[in-house]
Structure formats: C-alpha cells, structure tokens
Write the structure tokens for this entry.
Amino acid sequence: MLRGRSLSVTSLSGLPLWDVQGLPIEDLLFFEVAWEVTNKVGGIYTVIQTKAKTTADEWGENYYLIGPYFEHNMKTQVEECEPPNPAIKKAVDAMNLHGCQVHFGRWLIEGSPYVVLFDIGYSAWNLDRWKGDLWEACHIGIPYHDREANDMLIFGSLTAWFLKEVTDHVDGKHVIVQFHEWQAGTGLILSRARRLPIATIFTTHATLLGRYLCAANTDFYNHLDKFDIDKEAGERQIYHRYCMERASVHCAHVFTTVSEITAIEAEHMLKRKPDVITPNGLNIKKFSAVHEFQNLHVLYKSRIQDFVRGHFYGHLDFDLEKTLFLFIAGRYEFSNKGADIFLEALSRLNFLLRVHKSDVTVVVFFIMPAKTNNFNVETLKGQAVRKQLWDTANSVKEKFGKKLYDALLRGEIPDLNKILDRDDVTIMKRAIFSTQRQSLPPVTTHNMIDDSTDPILSTIRRIGLFNSRTDRVKVILHPEFLSSTSPLLPMDYEEFVRGCHLGVFPSYYEPWGYTPAECTVMGIPSVTTNLSGFGCFMQEHVTDPAAYGIYIVDRRFCSPDESCNQLTQFLYGFCKQSRRQRIIQRNRTERLSDLLDWKYLGRYYMHARHLTLSRAFPDKFHAESSPPPKTKGFKFPRPSSVPPSPTSSQHSSPQNSDIEDEDERYDEDEEAEKDRINIKSPFSLGQVPHEKKKQHGEHKN
C-alpha cells in the first residue's frame, strides 16, 4: 500500500485511540455524491453538512461534493469560484461545452468544501438517450410518469459523464467516489458499466422498500426473511426504483449502512451484507463554561413558558415551575415515528398522574409538519391576550413604582390602600375578565386541512386528551417546522429542544435517528427504541443508558401493549424526578456527546475508504494486515452516584420538583472523571455482527 503520512485519530475525552496508516491524500481525489448536497430534503443533508468539516480537514483541496443545481440554493449557500484542480476544470469545461450546465464553488458551511452542481432541467433533452444507456447497462426501465426517478437518471448520467472526464485527465491520481442512497446510485451503475477506474462506496441510510413496508403497518422485523421482495415492490409501483437501489448495492466495491438494525434489513431487502457500519455523527461544540448548556435550558424554557401562558389562558390553573415540557419531532409518519404508541402512553400517564393526585403537569408538543391553511384563531388570540396582560401589568407596575418612589423620598411609608387608585383597579379587573374563555385550549396551533382524518387528531379524540382542567397531560400539535419568525412560538428548533425536558421518539422504523442524537449533544434526555440505529448504538456503548438519560423502549421483542406500558413507566418515572435529579441527569446526558462527534465516528468512513481502495486497486493498495480487534467496544460505566430517577424505591406519587434529597451526594466533576477513566476496551471497526436469531415472543408494534 502506498504510504504518504501517518494518520492518528485523536482521543476525545477518553475515547479510544485508533492508529491507522494514512492514505496518500496528495495522490487521491475523493468525491461524495448525493441529491442532498446544498439541497435540504431530509436527514442525509444533515449527515453531509455536519461531516464536511472533518472530511475537508483530512482531505483538503482533494475533497469534492457532487449534487443537483437549484438556483435559490446556489444564491444563498454557494460561492462560485474556479476549480483549483486542472482535471476538475477540464471536466467542467468539457461538459459545459457539450450542452450541459455545471456550476462549481464553495459550499458556505463549516469546512467550506468544494461542490460540483449539475442543472438537471438544462440536460433533460438527453433523457430518452440516457434511458437507453441504463437499459443497455442493467436492463432497468424507468416509466415516463415517475418524475423523481427520471430526475435521478439525469443526475446519475451527468455524474458518470463527469467522472469519466475527470479520470481521463487525472494524471495518475486514484479516485474514490462515495454515493449516498438510491438517488445517486444511477451514477455508480453507469460508472461501473463503463469500467471507469474508480473505487466506489455505496451508503444506504434506509432501504426504499423497508420504509414503504413499515408505513403500511406490516409486521416488518418478524418477516424480513419471508417477504417476496419483487412482489412487494411491484405492488407499490416502485419496482424500478428498487432495482436501481439493488443494482447500486451490488455494483459498489464497498457497501455501508448507518446502523446494525439497518444492516440486518439491507441484507434481506437488498441481498448483500454491508461491509462497514458508518454511524451518523454531529459537530460537537463544547462551551467554555461546563454548565452553560444548563443556563441555556433555563433561558429557552422561559420562552416556552410564555407560549404556554398564552395558549392556556383562562385555564392556567397549574404551576409552570412544576410543569415538564416533552416533545416529538420529525416527518409526519404516524406509525414509523411512533406517534401512535406515544399518544397511547400519554393517555396512561395522564391516568397515573390523576390517580396519584400529582401536582406535576406535562405539556407535550408534536412538531410534525402537515397540511394546514392558516394559524388557529384561538391560538393567536391567546398570545395576544398574554401580551396585553403583560403590558397592563407593566403600566400598573410603573405607576405603582413612581408613587412608591415619591413617598420614600418624602420619608413616608406609603399607604398601600391608596397607592392604587380606582382606575388602576378597574384596569386590572378588565384584564382579568379578558382572560375568561368558554372553550378548552385548542390541541392544535393551526387549522388542519384534513382535520377529520388526521391520525394524531383522531387518536386524541379517541383517548380524550382535550386539555381539560382535570388533565395532567396537555397536548399541543404544531404542524409546522419551528421558526424564530413565527408569531406563535418564535424559536428555532435548537432553542426549542434546549428549553424542553425530554424528547420522545419511540420509532418503529428509524435507521439512525438524528432527533435523539441532537437532544443528547444539547444535554436533553430522550426516549428511543431498540429498532432505531441510535438506540442500538447507545445500548452497545453505554452500560446503563437510562442513567445517562437515554431511555430505550423494547419494540422488537415485546408486544405493542408491553412496549406502551414500558414507555409509560419511563415517562412516569421521569415525572417523579426532583429538579435536582433532572439537572444531574442532563449533565450525564451531555457527557455522551463525545460519542456522537464526527471526530470519533469519522473513522468508520476512513475504514470504508481504505477497504474500497484495496478492492478496486489491489495491486497498489491493501487493507491493514492487522485489522482492529473485534470487541464489544468501550462502554460508559454505570454512574457511581445514586440513580437519576427513583427506580430503586417507587413512591406512590411523584416527588415535588422543588424537593431535594439531602442524602444524595453528587460531585459532577468527580463523576465525569470516573467515567473518563473507566471507559473499557477500544472500539472495533470489524464487520457487521451476525444477525441475532429471533427470540420467542418477538412482536411487531
């Protein structure tokens, strides 16, 4: 293997070192191809955007991203410039000369990577010819009415053309290309069919058919080996897309996926076992002050409390200091994202809190975009009433303060009965009367277009969570992405997450799960499942995830009712925590953020690049002779202090949030140091573990 320099992945707060012999970067070019380069559609955008800095730091001027051109994205995210590499410049010029429109520039994100963007519409006149090329290469036909698949064919054909031009002028450099998802897969198929001298990696973040099957409420994980794949894809009219995805998988030198659970799925759906698992990470930014994230929680929680004051005006008979804010967020996939089981668990939690006469109130937000036609008038009125009350209180406070100030200057103790005149009392009475309402606080902030058939609203009607005074669980559906410019809840998503107490994501189908990962790096506890990639990752790395604020619901080996009861117990136990216990738990949760840093997880992608070079160019490269040992990985140990939730001795009712346990001795710095020292053996980059045999009692839920 050619060796240019030694590369060592630095240990992060005690994470294990991984010493590998570095690739000769100066003799290589690395391209990543994805439909979501500069084009935010879903989670792959987050993967590429957050990973760019780590990859650019490693590869420098030899790292390029390839994606589609959209004018609005180009104007706001990309700074056009000339290609610094002669081979890239020749390829861009040659394609532009032959009737294409190729744009080159720097993507204005961390790392500022170079991007090559193809204008799909400008080259659409080649579609019929390129359909013939694909048929010649792999006998896959694409129907004319599938606009998305046709766009992907154009994108893939342009990618293969570009790579051909690059390899023709690369002057001895070897080229690595990583393709993300089936949308980019056509470029891989055509490149291999034309025998381009490139090393290829194909990464699937979720199988196409798996997502369709789970959305149809099938018993997916129990029947992975029983599905008639061709029949299922044909019935859903995605057979051509499935063939494109499967052909991409089998054409690649190295096949990777994002989690163990998705690796098992891919082996059955796509008929190839992944070579490497590449978990998704984030760019972790540590505060200079250790507990600054706790201060941010207090700041943003107060903003959410302001919204709640307005939304529940006239029914604000609960103590906001003893109110917990929970949320679920993501695509509106009712069953896949676990909204069904979450609502059922909330109904049971409401019963438990009422039976035990708890003074804890739980306000739950559903941040899931759906079709709406406008804001709910009652919700807008609530925020207007709150603001009017605030202005009234401020005006009375100013008059009161001036009279008090004048009296004290005269050396008198003011008569409190005279300091407020009749007009002040009248204003306050009118303010009180304005807060009266005859209806219950709305369960949704917008007017839903399909109100009668909406799955969340239909379930709320069935379980009877209508935000009545007796309910200890209140529900708010916000069917729109959060924005700091919103007149209702003016907060960005990150600010909102930091202000909440718990994120709940009991997904049935979640190949990775960025939402609980984002909660973790912000120090917010979360609920996930053993069917999500994130949940499996945490089970492997952390001895007792719940002690660190990662609650993992068993949705694979339990019945739906058992899973719902387990989730209810997690939520009820969380409600029992004192305020101090929640602070301790947030500290522990935030310490897990190092596990999700690309500086650590980037090593999996490095391993995949080593492997593909050794397979594509075996005469010049070979994989490490002594691969990393196959171990169960390192684990964060069980915290040495008392558990963060009162699981050892259950009480009949939750503790008050302001009660502190004087016997609980806790030193945050000391415990963090113990965690750092006690991390176990180095983590493995070995192959995907063999699929576990199904256990008796495995259920779909």
About this structure: DSSP finds 23 helices and 19 strands in the chain. Confidence is low (pLDDT under 50) at residues 1-14, 625-634, 645-664, 677-701. Residues 557 and 698 are 4 Å apart (CA to CA).
